[in-house]
Write a structure and sequence with these properties.
Layout (H helix, E strand, L loop, with lengths): L2 H48 L5 H6 L1 H13 L7 H15 L5 H15 L6 H12 L3 H16 L6 H13 L4 H16 L7 H8 L7 H15 L11 H25 L4
Helix pairs in contact: 3-5, 3-6, 3-7, 3-8, 4-5, 6-8, 7-8, 7-9, 7-12, 9-12, 10-12, 11-12
Length: 270
């Protein structure tokens, strides 16, 4: 083999080594480093989050605490928290508490924050501003939070004027434009109008999976089970698009409508 061929072979082997062998190990090292860093970050984030369960004051100032405060403002905006709203809020507490090692302790603090904040209507703007600061540049999370708040107000009999007023204040402070708010609201309204407005009693029983002969205790149990199954999960929704919340809301509304129809049929005339 002449010198030129040896040089060509040497060049080829050098290129092959750096292109496939050396880069392969470099790539694997980078992937391992990223995975390791991600696990360290998750461990640190969980440790930091768990500290919130040890202090109501710290929890109140966190992203979760401020969001719960805004949930309380929306839920109580029309003067009362109805049955379905209360159930959805309780499920929200369950969903969030799963993030903590001391679940019951965290849930108790969240409930305390909610009960305190629902009695106040003078700090809504302040709470929304504080949450906006913590959210930084996250446009998606802002829209998800706003969608969840709209869902909470909308899921019963629609959004009242008082609820709309509170929601508009919150979205303004979260840097969500009124046009964006109107668009989200419109999507919920369109979703409702596409549903059957005059649900038959037969359809209502079918949706809840109960029989006409079942008592209200059995029916309520089935209703609560279905709501728990289909309710929008504020934690899960952060990894999904807005359609998740809208679809979950549509199903929850349908379940609620069916329950109300059956409850009226089962309630003796006064």
């Amino acid at each position: 083999m002449n010198l030129r061929k040896w040089i060509s072979l040497a060049i080829f082997l050098t290129i092959f080594y750096y292109a496939f062998i050396a880069n392969f190990f470099v790539t694997i090292s980078i992937i391992i480093g990223i995975v390791f860093s991600f696990r360290i970050y998750k461990w640190y984030a969980r440790k930091k989050r768990n500290k919130l369960a040890n202090s109501k004051e710290q929890f109140e100032k966190s992203e979760l605490g401020l969001f719960i405060a805004l949930v309380a403002k929306v839920a109580k905006a029309d003067g009362r928290v109805d049955e379905l709203e209360a159930q959805l809020i309780g499920m929200m507490f369950d969903d969030i508490s799963k993030l903590f090692d001391e679940k019951e302790k965290a849930r108790a603090i969240m409930k305390e924050i909610f009960n305190d904040e629902k009695e106040r209507d003078d700090d809504t703007k302040e709470k929304a501003q504080a949450l906006n600061t913590l959210l930084g540049r996250s446009v998606l999370k802002r829209r998800q939070f706003v969608s969840f708040l709209i869902q909470l107000a909308f899921v019963g009999n629609g959004i009242s004027d008082d609820e709309d007023k509170v929601l508009r204040l919150i979205v303004t402070e979260l840097n969500v434009t009124q046009e964006q708010y109107e668009a989200i609201l419109k999507s919920f309204e369109n979703m409702k109008s596409n549903k059957q407005n005059n649900m038959s009693s037969h359809k209502a029983y079918e949706i809840l999976g109960v029989k006409e002969s079942d008592d209200m205790g059995t029916i309520k149990k089935a209703y609560r089970k279905l709501v728990r199954e289909y309710h929008p999960d504020i934690i899960s929704s952060q990894d999904k698009d807005e359609s998740y919340v809208k679809e979950a809301t549509a199903k929850t509304q349908e379940i609620n409508q069916a329950y109300n129809i059956i409850k009226e049929l089962k309630t003796p005339n006064k």
